[in-house]
């Protein structure tokens, strides 16, 4: 499932839930921007799962192979609301071909500049480091109405411009989806019926320097 499709599934579920829980909606308006905006929940605890609805063994069986410990956590991680130490701050691999193929010996005015192999290699490495856009992961608490309630969410590193000269910034270009359980209630108060349903949650997996 692609970038926009995954988000649309999530938006659809959120809007569908809003039919029975009018407080539940995405904020801001649904769009293709990631990470997913926080949900505004009905604060009434009557819509929360009860203790007997949170039996780990039962929920693990229901989620099955979709449970991914690399991106999900049942209990509160030590680093909730903080960047994960294994953030991709290092270059993920060799210098891309579009940078390797740069001809540093020619200027826009046709004048040739002599550049040694060592200097060229160091400059290209610097350029790759400067323009590289790592994904910064941090743990997010989705609340008791999601299971597992903690997700490792990706964000594009944006503490500075990624272009030279400045002006461009890191933006998401790819995402992956993870399947969670969502506590879903139909009806109101004593007439309501609640159960766990599966929803897909898109997570940024790759960023690129762009306008």
UniProtKB/TrEMBL annotation:
* Superkingdom field: Eukaryota
Is Secreted one of the keywords UniProt gives this record? yes
Pfam family name, one: Noggin
For this UniProt record, give its keywords in alphabetical order, as a comma-separated list. Answer: Chondrogenesis, Developmental protein, Differentiation, Disulfide bond, Secreted, Signal
Which coarse location class describes where this protein primarily resides? secreted
Q: Where is the signal peptide?
A: 1-20
Q: Do you know which InterPro entries this protein is assigned to?
A: Cystine-knot_cytokine, Noggin
GO CC, one annotated term: extracellular space
Q: Does the keyword Disulfide bond apply?
A: yes
Question: Which terms does the UniProt entry file under GO BP?
Answer: cartilage development; dorsal/ventral pattern formation; negative regulation of BMP signaling pathway; negative regulation of cell differentiation; osteoblast differentiation
Please give the family membership noted in the entry: Belongs to the noggin family.
Q: Which PANTHER family match?
A: BONE MORPHOGENETIC PROTEIN INHIBITOR, NOGGIN, NOGGIN
User: Which protein, by its recorded name, is this?
Assistant: Noggin
């Amino acid at each position: 499932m692609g970038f926009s499709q995954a988000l649309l599934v999530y938006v659809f579920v959120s809007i569908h839930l809003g039919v029975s829980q009018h407080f539940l909606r995405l904020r801001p308006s649904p769009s293709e921007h990631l990470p997913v905006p926080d949900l505004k929940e009905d604060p009434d605890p009557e819509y929360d799962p009860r203790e007997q609805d949170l039996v780990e063994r039962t929920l693990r069986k229901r989620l099955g192979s979709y449970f991914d410990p690399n991106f999900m956590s049942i209990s509160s991680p030590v680093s909730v609301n903080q960047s994960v130490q294994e953030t991709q701050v290092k270059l993920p691999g060799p210098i891309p071909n579009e940078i390797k193929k740069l001809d540093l010996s020619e200027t826009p005015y046709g004048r040739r500049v002599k550049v040694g192999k060592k200097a060229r290699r160091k400059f290209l490495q610097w350029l790759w480091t400067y323009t590289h856009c790592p994904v910064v992961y941090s743990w997010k608490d989705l609340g008791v109405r999601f299971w597992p309630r903690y997700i490792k969410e990706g964000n594009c590193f944006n503490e500075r411009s990624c272009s030279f000269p400045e002006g461009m910034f890191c933006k998401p270009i790819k995402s992956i989806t993870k399947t969670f359980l969502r506590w879903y209630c139909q009806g109101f108060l004593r007439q309501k019926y609640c159960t766990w349903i599966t929803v897909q949650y898109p997570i940024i997996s790759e960023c690129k320097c762009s306008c």
